[in-house]
Design goal:
Blueprint lengths: L5 H14 L1 H19 L8 H11 L1 H27 L4 H33 L7 H7 L19 H7 L5 H7 L2 H17 L2 H25 L3 H23 L1 H24 L5 H18 L2 H15 L4 H14 L2 H17 L6 H15 L8 H13 L6 H33 L9
């Protein structure tokens, strides 16, 4: 066996770093981790104020990246959903695919919730932490209210359902209410399908141009992704430090184990229902998954997910342009699983017994909260407060999780994006090519 000298491997490494987005993001994350440790409190090299100034400047590429994506994500989602729905060709085909996709998302979310309950009750992470010591070490006053209470009431559900229909679409566009935008896009698409093709064709061409323009802007933003990953990782590690990570290690480990099991469930779905090879399919997913890990935003990854689905996985545009934008808004399986584990962890930490009825209430609340949850960094921690209230767990407990939330946010976003791509593969297999109208 001939072992090549390391110097012969350098050109390959250089090629990966120069040409492959995933390799650049990995390098950025690793360098950010090292710098974060240097700037963190454990190293004692840089004082806290100076470290904060440095990480603020290092975070500029990350904030620019997210701002650019947020700037164009609304027109991209609107155009992509309508074009994807138009590709269905008929209202009947649209109804069939829409109901099937929605059912798939709900079923996989229920699976995620079940996995969350299983790992949280099996591992019991709250028993590994001394609650008094944790509160003291993080300098948290038990009487202090740092997270706004969000009252949850089942009587409010009808009003919420009515509220998803936008009374003023322009307001929804300006405020970025994704679920309302999707509903509006659905009405527009059905109306366009119902019209003669000649009358709807100008709008179709306009939407195609909008989609191309937004994707071009995304390609510019992607150049900032490695720098964004570097800055964000350095910022997180320097502020959180290793002590907090170790202190909440059992909780973090439980969430990661649950998310790993959910990924295994997706792998089974890909193999059994989509009938795709596992290894090559996962390799195709690496760009959007690494970007999801570095940005913690399903919406920011959506353009890359679309490109990956259509160009690498060869998914029909009729499927990808409907499933991925919809999934980025309502398919939050990783978030739902994390919320369940977080509720159980805090209940265990505060010695609160959760009965069967309460667990069902928590699961239903988490299911509804994950549907339509904002696909932006940190949104899950706000939604979690409503679930804690439903479970009777002190909301102040959320503060214990804030330090490590961003790291778990990165991990659960990967699972959210995996779910969208898995759905694409499943429905691409179900919808035969002859049912897709030729453009």
């Amino acid at each position: 066996m001939v072992i090549k000298s390391f110097k012969h491997q350098i050109p390959q490494i250089s090629y990966l770093v120069k040409k492959k987005l995933w390799a650049q993001v990995l390098v950025g994350l690793f360098l950010g981790l090292l710098l974060g440790l240097v700037l963190g409190p454990e190293a004692g090299i840089v004082d806290k104020d100076t470290s904060g100034i440095i990480t603020t400047w290092l975070s500029i590429p990350a904030h620019l990246f997210l701002k650019i994506i947020q700037m164009i994500i609304v027109p991209l989602i609107f155009a992509s959903i309508i074009r994807g729905l138009l590709s269905a060709g008929s209202v009947e085909q649209l109804r069939t695919m829409g109901i099937s996709v929605a059912a798939f998302f709900v079923i996989t979310t229920v699976i995620a919730l079940g996995i969350g309950v299983f790992v949280a009750t099996t591992i019991v992470p709250g028993n590994f932490v001394d609650s008094e010591a944790m509160l003291s070490s993080l300098e948290i006053d038990e009487t202090e209210q740092l997270v706004e209470n969000i009252e949850f009431n089942f009587l409010d559900i009808p009003q919420h359902i009515i509220g998803i229909i936008p009374s003023n679409p322009l307001t929804s566009f300006m405020s970025g209410e994704m679920l309302s935008i999707i509903i509006f896009a659905l009405f527009v698409a059905i109306a366009m399908i119902s019209l003669p093709k000649k009358k709807s064709e100008p709008i179709t061409d306009l939407l195609e141009s909008i989609q191309e323009i937004t994707m071009k802007v995304v390609s510019w933003a992607m150049r900032l992704a490695p720098l964004a990953a570097f800055g964000l990782m350095a910022d997180i590690v320097s502020k959180v430090g290793l002590d907090a990570l170790v202190g909440l290690g059992a909780y973090m480990g439980t969430v990661v184990i649950g998310l790993f099991i959910m990924m295994l469930a997706y792998i089974v779905i890909i193999k059994v229902f989509a009938r795709r090879p596992i290894i090559s399919t996962l390799k195709m997913m690496k760009d959007p998954l690494l970007l999801a890990f570095s940005t913690s935003s399903s919406a920011a990854v959506m353009p890359v997910s679309l490109k990956t689905a259509e160009e690498k996985m060869k998914v029909k545009p009729a499927v990808s342009q409907f499933v991925i934008p919809l999934g980025a808004t309502i398919n939050m399986n990783g978030t739902a699983l994390y919320q369940i584990v977080a509720v159980f962890f805090l209940a265990q930490l505060f010695s609160i017994e959760l009965g069967a009825t309460t667990i069902i209430l928590i699961a239903v609340t988490a299911l509804m909260a994950s549907i339509g949850a904002p696909s932006a960094p940190g949104a899950g921690i706000v939604i979690l407060s409503s679930i804690l209230l439903a479970a009777g767990v002190p909301v102040i407990g959320i503060v214990l999780l804030l330090g490590v939330d961003r790291i778990l946010d990165m991990t659960r976003t990967m699972v959210n994006v995996s779910g969208d791509l898995t759905a694409c593969l499943v429905f691409d297999k179900r919808i035969k090519a002859e049912h897709i109208p030729k453009s």
